[in-house]
Amino acid sequence: MLIIATYDVSTETPEGRRRLRRVAKVCERVGQRVQKSVFECQVNQMQYEELERALLAEINLEEDNLRFYRLTEPQDIHVKQYGVFRSVDFEGPLLV
């Protein structure tokens, strides 16, 4: 499944800035950054649950915001892309 993970971490304190870096690192392990705090992640159900647990362990529920969006099939009619960014085709052949 393709999910979009978004977050808004309060960076007013040094601890908030550290949390922001930790949250980004968790997302980078699973998906690709498409905007500063937005990641596309191609995951199965178990990977999704692991990602959710890892991010919930990092954020402060009193100060931060975390959202997940699950994109339904067929993805090509639900996702439109404009501009210079080109995302990775998770389903396409891997070229090295």
TrEMBL record:
Cofactor(s) essential for the protein: Mg(2+)
Top-rank taxon: Bacteria
GO biological process: defense response to virus; maintenance of CRISPR repeat elements
EC number: 3.1.-.-
InterPro entries: CRISPR_associated_Cas2, Virulence_VapD/CRISPR_Cas2
Enzyme class: hydrolase
Keyword terms: Antiviral defense, Endonuclease, Hydrolase, Magnesium, Metal-binding, Nuclease
Pfam families the UniProt entry points to: CRISPR_Cas2
MF annotations from Gene Ontology: hydrolase activity; metal ion binding; RNA endonuclease activity
Keyword rRNA-binding belongs to the record: no
Sequence positions that bind Mg(2+): D8
SUPFAM superfamilies, per the entry: TTP0101/SSO1404-like
NCBIfam families: cas2
The protein's role, per its UniProt record: CRISPR (clustered regularly interspaced short palindromic repeat), is an adaptive immune system that provides protection against mobile genetic elements (viruses, transposable elements and conjugative plasmids). CRISPR clusters contain sequences complementary to antecedent mobile elements and target invading nucleic acids. CRISPR clusters are transcribed and processed into CRISPR RNA (crRNA). Functions as a ssRNA-specific endoribonuclease. Involved in the integration of spacer DNA into the CRISPR cassette.
UniProt family annotation: Belongs to the CRISPR-associated endoribonuclease Cas2 protein family.
Quaternary data: Homodimer, forms a heterotetramer with a Cas1 homodimer.
Protein name per Swiss-Prot or TrEMBL: CRISPR-associated endoribonuclease Cas2
